[in-house]
Write a structure and sequence with these properties.
Number of domains: 3
Strand order of the largest sheet: 3-2-1-4-5
Structural class: alpha/beta
Radius of gyration: 28 Å
Helix content: 55-70%
Shape: flat
Length: 321
């Protein structure tokens, strides 16, 4: 997917959800205005602020609006449901800890149910937007894949999953190299690739055939650029590496590693640290505060102790603790 378009889509979804929670808040406020004393308006406004802030916080940590999440409607809906349920728990925890009893239960229940219905409506609206973009010809980027091999089939699958504004027309391959049925048509052979690209108004050509495999690729690259058709080469790393690898870039240099470490990213480390503190605090206050004394008492009744088991462990940066 085009990254700029993806960011616009993410921003649109965030704005729609914030609009939903705000409209539900004001609707409930208008309907239940007779049961809300005037001097309590600040309390209700604080409730709205906490609701909006907690929704954004949970969505950020659980990547509700991440590109890979929003591309799949089923996945997006499932993730939204998870965040929504956690949001309800978070807001109820806030009301319990702050001992805020001035907000009517009817308002709380109505706003939570209303927001849930608003989220459902937004998801179906998003489905309509996605379908509209898929059917809008002037927004669609047409592409073809040069070669029919394992790399080409993987690339076609990625276009199906990720290409909300990308239309794969088919493969370009010589008949002698095709030995099975394909999900997309084999349009023509490599020698006529540029002619087909111009005929069907193709924006990009993805080549899974490297110049080392076919010297004509160099000329095709040059001619494609002259026709303002982007030509991209997709290398098959399995020739050199027999397992999946993670690729990252230092400047213009590609770096291969056997796996990615999410905690290499500073943002992920910050999110993990905040999540650790929040979850630990809730567990200590609401579970361990009564569970540890109870278990300690049972241990003392059964044996002489000790209650806590201590053992030296190796921690971060090989420091013992």
């Amino acid at each position: 997917m085009n990254r700029q378009f993806e960011r616009y889509l993410q921003m649109t979804l965030v704005v729609l959800d914030l609009f939903a929670i705000t409209m539900v808040y004001f609707f409930c406020k208008v309907v239940l205005t007779k049961s809300i004393p005037v001097n309590y308006w600040s309390v209700y406004f604080q409730y709205w602020t906490i609701s909006v802030g907690s929704w954004l916080l949970l969505s950020f940590f659980l990547r509700n609006y991440a590109g890979k999440t929003i591309l799949n409607f089923e996945h997006f809906t499932k993730r939204t449901t998870q965040v929504y349920l956690l949001w309800i728990i978070f807001v109820l925890f806030y009301l319990f800890l702050s001992r805020e009893y001035r907000i009517s239960r009817g308002f709380i229940i109505s706003s939570m149910i209303g927001f849930g219905l608003g989220l459902m409506g937004n998801r179906f609206l998003y489905l309509g937007i996605k379908k509209y973009f898929k059917n809008s010809h002037y927004l669609i980027k047409k592409v073809i894949i040069l070669g029919y091999n394992d790399t080409a089939k993987k690339l076609a699958k990625y276009f199906e999953e990720d290409g909300i504004n990308t239309q794969l027309l088919g493969f370009i391959e010589d008949d002698k190299n095709v030995h099975e049925l394909s999900h997309y048509p084999i349009i023509t052979d490599v020698s006529k690739a540029l002619h087909v690209a111009k005929e069907f108004d193709v924006a990009e050509i993805y080549s899974t055939i490297t110049p080392e495999q076919n010297n004509d690729i160099y000329e095709l690259m040059y001619q494609s650029e002259k026709e303002c058709i982007k030509f991209k080469i997709v290398p098959n790393l399995s020739v050199f590496i027999t397992r999946d690898v993670h690729i990252e870039y230092f400047g213009e240099l590609p770096i291969l590693s056997l796996r990615s470490d999410p905690l290499d990213d500073v943002g992920n480390r910050i999110k993990k640290r905040v999540l650790d503190i929040v979850v630990s605090f809730l567990v200590i206050v609401f579970i361990l505060s009564w569970l540890i004394p109870l278990l300690g008492l049972l241990i003392l009744l059964e044996s002489k102790g000790p209650i806590f088991f201590k053992q030296l462990r190796t921690g971060k940066n090989k420091k013992p603790f």
